[in-house]
Design brief:
Keywords: Membrane, Transmembrane, Transmembrane helix. It comes from Leeia speluncae. The chain crosses the membrane at residues 20-40, 76-94, 101-122, 128-147, 154-173, 179-206, 218-236, 264-287, 352-376, 396-413, 425-446. This is Glycosyltransferase RgtA/B/C/D-like domain-containing protein. The protein is mainly alpha-helical. The chain has 3 domains: 40-340, no CATH class; 347-451, no CATH class; 454-536, no CATH class. 62% of the residues lie in helices and 5% in strands. It is built from 23 helices and 6 strands. Strands 3-4-6-5 form a 4-stranded mixed β-sheet, covered by helices on one side. Strands 1-2 form a two-stranded antiparallel ribbon. Strand 1 (64-65) and strand 2 form a beta hairpin.
């Protein structure tokens, strides 16, 4: 796939590139959002509930949501989160914060693999541009700091791309890495990842320099590596629990659809913001080199991979934007050469847009912190307290110093007079990192006070009956999962729940309940619409 020859870099340019700065920026990008807040998003709660069950029972082969077998996702992310939780919780971090370290490690490894792929495909100084483009995408940053099953899939796809990038120089090593990547994609993303990922990998066989023997050798090594690793867990599941394996097969194979037009349209339309600013640069590269697409097949192959992985995202029955993060990988590699090819006018416009956008957001973040810290202006402070009634302002000096450092770094980067395409892309990534960092430090206590389920669940736990089952068929998944995660309370669901004398339901606050069956009601501090009610059935 290595067909592009970049202009030679001068010694002065090499001296200006400091890898430690990229490492520091990556850590700054990864850390904010991992700590300092409880789980409240449904996807993360599901993962943490499964991890809690694995650690408490020692059963790592069959994922459970409470006492119920949970086969929505393969176990790769569960295993990774459970390992980190076992190592670092509770002596250093809480269980959910320790489990999130697995998400940071998987994302960091994905950055490493995509950087090495960019270095192999384009030039030794281009790998960091691919990483900066990923870090600057709107769709990735908000989803990379929570532990979700898709992160294992993301890591597998990044490894596949790196394996494919070295196919000309290290044939067998390339096939081995790509095979491991396909297996990781399956164990992270499920059966929907197998066919598109394999087809994307096989696109490399159309690369001209490979002869027939090399193609056969590479394909054999690929499948010999991928198949045993991918099938190890399903075969073990079939051996120890045949009924569970049959249910997994029914969910993930028998009901698999090969095309869902509605979902494909959803993911294509959301790419306008989700993949910004990667997709305009990638599109520019395709248009710029459209006449040489079949001669220089690198871009054509990356485009094919993008379409295959977009198809993969649309195969899942449910629409969720986090599933589209895999498409950002080939997009980023496709857009990487644009850093050295952007015209001066486009570079200036892109840099001005990043200055305007992130300077405004950073100023807004500091203004909001000032309002909460000093209660000025009083009317605006009152409105913010109404949105998060239980918030009590506390200054955490370490996060405050971090926010000041991020603001200073952004000011220094944004006022530099000479801006190239590489610097403009770096400025965008730094600006988004600074904006995210300030939101996760200055504003996180205020958001946490409104979103945290723990105060509500403490009251609910005291009201729950002891040694009696509670019907959880109509309980929100997040509440049901957190009851098990925090207190070990397992609500009854399914047909047996109809025999329970107690029910936990979700209701609208406007819907009055005047019956004598209502025992307890409560909601999160910032939720003005819905509440949870405990009812005793007569």
């Amino acid at each position: 796939m290595l067909t592009y020859q970049a202009p030679p870099t001068t010694e002065a340019t090499i001296q200006k590139d400091h890898s430690w700065l990229l490492l520091l920026l990556s850590l700054t990008w990864l850390v904010p959002g991992l700590f300092g807040h409880a789980p409240w998003r449904n996807e993360e709660v599901e993962v943490l509930t499964v991890i809690r069950h694995m650690l408490s029972t020692g059963n790592w082969m069959i994922p459970h949501f409470g006492s119920q077998v949970f086969l929505e996702n393969p176990p790769l992310t569960y295993w990774a989160g459970a390992i980190f939780a076992y190592l670092f919780s509770p002596w250093l971090l809480s269980l959910h914060e320790a489990a999130r370290l697995a998400a940071a490690v998987m994302m960091g490894l994905s950055f490493l693999f995509i950087g090495m792929a960019g270095r192999q495909l384009w030039d030794k100084k281009q790998g960091r541009i691919a990483v900066l483009l990923l870090m600057g995408s709107f769709g990735l940053i908000a989803r990379a700091h929570l532990i979700m099953p898709e992160q294992g899939n993301f890591l597998g796809h990044a490894l596949v791309l790196y394996g494919l990038s070295i196919i000309r120089t290290q044939l067998f090593y390339s096939a081995t890495l790509a095979g491991i990547g396909i297996a990781l994609s399956f164990l992270g993303g499920g059966t929907v990842a197998i066919l598109p990922t394999t087809l994307a990998a096989l696109l490399v066989l159309f690369d001209k320099p490979l002869n027939s023997i090399n193609r056969i050798q590479w394909t054999l090594v690929l499948f010999v590596t991928a198949i045993p690793l991918a099938l190890a867990w399903p075969l073990a599941l079939q051996e120890i629990a045949p009924s569970v394996f049959a249910e997994w097969k029914r969910l993930h194979w028998d009901n698999l659809s090969f095309f869902l037009p509605k979902n494909a349209l959803y993911y294509c339309s959301m790419m306008a913001w989700f993949a910004w600013p990667i997709w305009p640069l990638a599109l520019g590269q395709l248009l710029r080199h459209r006449r040489r697409m079949f001669e220089d097949r690198t871009r054509l192959i990356l485009l094919g991979m993008s379409l295959c992985w977009l198809w993969e995202a649309s195969l899942s029955p449910e629409q969720h934007d986090v599933k589209a993060i895999i498409v950002l990988l080939p997009f980023a590699l496709l857009a990487t050469p644009a850093a050295n090819q952007l015209k001066r006018g486009w570079t200036a416009a892109f840099n001005w847009f990043s200055r305007f956008t992130f300077t405004g957001f950073i100023a807004l973040a500091w203004f909001g912190w000032f309002v909460l810290a000093f209660e000025m202006p009083s009317k605006l402070a009152a409105r913010m307290h109404r949105a998060s009634p239980s918030y009590v302002h506390e200054d955490h000096w370490y996060w405050l110093l971090f926010a000041i450092a991020m603001t200073g770094a952004w000011v220094w980067m944004s006022i530099r007079p000479k801006v190239s395409g590489r610097i403009a892309i770096a400025n965008w990534a730094i600006g988004l990192t600074a904006a995210w960092g300030l939101a996760m430090t200055l504003w996180m206590p205020w958001v946490e006070a409104a979103k945290d389920y723990r105060p509500m669940l403490d009251g609910l736990y005291k009201a729950l009956p002891t040694n009696e089952c509670v019907n959880g068929n109509h309980t929100p998944t997040t509440v049901r999962g957190l009851l098990y995660f925090y207190y070990g309370v397992d609500l009854t669901i399914g047909a047996n729940a109809s025999y329970c004398r107690w029910s936990l339901i979700q209701a609208n606050k406007k819907d009055a309940d005047t019956s004598n069956q209502l025992v307890w009601r409560g909601s999160r501090a910032g939720d003005k619409k819905e509440e949870v009610r405990l009812i005793k059935n007569e």
